[in-house]
Structures are given as structure tokens and as C-alpha cells.
Write a structure and sequence with these properties.
The structure is a single chain. The protein is mostly helical. The protein has 12 helices and no strands. Helix content is 64%, strand content 0%. The longest helix has 28 residues.
């Protein structure tokens, strides 16, 4: 894939993320981009959800830090996309560095028990997309060959869906939710095909106890519900696999 072509694909993903913000604000979106599309819902984002904060038993200080980290990272992400677009440069390295910094900051104040549970919720929120996460991949002993297959699969899926959000705008909320759910299932199926039988079994166990999370609330501003985070998670947007 040429550099220009690859940038077009990555830029498309960026547009899909911000398009999902607009869809959620209008009442659509299904599970949100954390599951229906290719961008992963980060641990830092999950930690701003009230239902996750309660599950992790975060202190007030930890809650405030989570919101702060997310707000700062969203601004830096916009700047990175703008700079890459202006310079026609490869954004992958900048985004990888930014996400690594965000992960480090978001996990710095957590106990080992909280980190372990957050990993479970991260897998629940992202499904097979979480296999690209280095922490999850290490626990599953994902090989370099498997990682390459993941990337190839994602690139093929992204290319096939470049115009999907244009079509979503003409759909009803119910149709949009159904379409995104279909895409999510297709992505999960194709990515998990890369795993061995033992890895599939271990991955299923790594999800832990199911927690219902409203991932769409993460698209309604930068933390939504004030100092405590993005608000409650009562909507059944997150279901156990």
C-alpha cells in the first residue's frame, strides 16, 4: 500500500471516529466506534464512565485524573490529525506515541487489582479489536505473524467500509444500529479466526464478569457528566459475548 493510500485509509478512520460523535449526539450509533468500527475505546475513556468508576472503586482523585487525561488526549489527537493532514505525513507513529502516553497516565494511579479488572472491561468494550493491544496480545502470546494478519484484516475491512458512514446518515436509528452491529460481528469473526483454539478459549475467559456500559455516552462531549465522568452506564449497549 502506498504512503498516500495508507494515509487516506487512516484519515478515513479518523473521520469515522468523529462521525460517530455526531451520530451519537443525534441519537444513533449502536455500540459506538469502540465496537462497531475500527477505533478502540481506550482504557482512559472507559475510566470516565460512572459505571466503570464504580466497578473499579475509583477514588475521587482517580476520577478527576481520568477526566483530565481524557480531555488532554482528545485535544492532542485533533492536533495530530490536523498536522498530519497539513503535512501529508504518516500519522501512525504520532498516534502510537500519544496512545502510549495516555495509557501510562491513565494506569499510573491504579492498583494491580484495578488494572486487571480494567483490562477485562477493555476487552468487553472492544471485542476482538482488543487483540491489537500490546498488553492483551502479550497475555495471549500473540505471534508477530498473527499481528501482521490482524493488520491486513483490518486494512481490508477499512477499505471495504470507507463509504459506510455516508450511508449511515440516510438510515433510521434502528437501521443504523443494526448495520453497525453487523459490522462489529464481522470484524470480531474475522479477527478471532487468526487465533488458535487455545487462544480463543483464553481470550473468552479474559473478559471476566460482564458489565453493561453505555459507550455512546463517551461521544457526548469530553467526560459528559461533570467531575465524576461521562455519566451512567445503564443503557444496554455493552453485552457479554
Amino acid at each position: 500500500m502506498t504512503k498516500r493510500r495508507l494515509f487516506a485509509v487512516i484519515a478515513c478512520v479518523g473521520l469515522m471516529v468523529f462521525a460517530s460523535d455526531a451520530l451519537a449526539q443525534r441519537g444513533g450509533g449502536g455500540r459506538g466506534m469502540g465496537r462497531g468500527g475500527f477505533g478502540r475505546t481506550r482504557r482512559a475513556d472507559l475510566m470516565t464512565l460512572e459505571v466503570v468508576q464504580n466497578d473499579l472503586k475509583l477514588s475521587d482523585e482517580q476520577k478527576e485524573q481520568a477526566v483530565k487525561v481524557r480531555e488532554e488526549s482528545r485535544e492532542k489527537m485533533r492536533e495530530a490529525f490536523q498536522e498530519a493532514r497539513d503535512n501529508n505525513s504518516d500519522i501512525r507513529e504520532a498516534m502510537a506515541k500519544l496512545n502510549a502516553e495516555v495509557e501510562e497516565k491513565s494506569l499510573s494511579g491504579l492498583s494491580d487489582e484495578q488494572k486487571s479488572r480494567l483490562d477485562q472491561l477493555y476487552i468487553q468494550a472492544n471485542g476482538a479489536n482488543s487483540l491489537m493491544d500490546e498488553t492483551i496480545a502479550a497475555k495471549l502470546n500473540i505471534t508477530e505473524e498473527q499481528k501482521e494478519k490482524f493488520q491486513t484484516t483490518l486494512q481490508d475491512l477499512m477499505e471495504a467500509r470507507r463509504g459506510s458512514f455516508q450511508n449511515f446518515r440516510d438510515m433510521s436509528e434502528e437501521e443504523r444500529t443494526e448495520a453497525m452491529e453487523k459490522q462489529r460481528k464481522e470484524s470480531d469473526e474475522k479477527l478471532t479466526e487468526v487465533l488458535t483454539d487455545d487462544q480463543k478459549e483464553q481470550f473468552a475467559q479474559m473478559k471476566g464478569e460482564a458489565l453493561e456500559m453505555d459507550l455512546n455516552s463517551l461521544r457526548r462531549g469530553f467526560g459528559g457528566g461533570g467531575r465524576g465522568g461521562a455519566g451512567g452506564g445503564g443503557r444496554r449497549n455493552q453485552r457479554p459475548e
